[in-house]
Task: structure prediction
Amino acid sequence: MAKKGRVFSGIRPTGRAHLGNYLGAIQNYVALQNDYECVYCIVDLHALTTVEDTENLRQNTYEIALDLLAAGIRPEETILFVQSQVPQVTELHTILSMVTPLGKLTDLPTFKEKVRQNPDNVNYGLVGYPVLMTADIVLYKSDIVPVGVDQAPHIEFAREIVRSFNYRYNTKALIEPQMKNTVIPKVLGIDGKEKMGKSLNNHIELASTPEETQQRVMQMVTDPARLRRNDPGNPDVCNVFSMHKIFSSAEEVEMVNRDCRTAALGCVDCKKLFAKNLNKNLEPFRAKRAEFASKPEQVWGILHDGARRARELAEATMKEVREAVQLPE
Ligand code: SF4
Result:
């Protein structure tokens, strides 16, 4: 079946993926492969803007590659690669930075937020982050970028940069990417309050053992008003129930919804049921991950092959860009 266009997305190498990454992004990456040509990039250069200690960067890149492959990324059709292995992206970043007003970059809410989070590490790369992101997207002539609502301004900004470049150099070399709004659920961490993330240590890693997973699930915060076993609970305010809705059968969801409210079901049993279902759901993922992990050279081979294919696309775009800017061939 003919594909509808080319999708690009980048994922940061933050090590092993967690449930929030899976439900929020990775699952969508896998599904998009059915309708689009997909280019997925592990953005290690982007990671450098906030990671000072790079001791684990290469390992973290490998770990996220394992997660993506185990989740169902099909490298024979999808281009999966590491950003730094396509040097053309840094060349395009430099060229695009000449048509990007500095004031706009420093005004972006995401930049201000990063400054607030890392006041001691406000580096030049952080300011140019959206320009590098634009270079990533347009280098592969991607039509579509899947985004959640909060990322929409980034893509709008990328479109502005592309327009400025095409106008300044009187060319159509770069394509304005379109946003594909994706329903990205906000997955709460085990604290039941904040978005799941490693920095808050409220996450559940996909590649944990079933025992570790159960331990994490048992730490999940439930309905805060349910103080004793015999108190009726309210599943509508409980994160465990939200997870049941994703990982448990319709009958189990109905049972939890009913029996929690009458206190016929206690939180311990409810969590045990969720942990069992989550582990069952993750079984094929874990088996596939272990298989890939037993052959690291195959995983790196996939990434190198992806980079080779990405470089071919990138070089074709850069030929047009150099021509437009009148840089020597
Ligand atoms: Fe949440 Fe389940 Fe406890 Fe109800 S029984 S409060 S849904 S953990």
Remarks:
- The longest strand covers residues 6-11.
- The chain has 13 helices and five strands.
- Residues 14 and 199 are 10 Å apart (CA to CA).
- The chain has a mean pLDDT of 94.
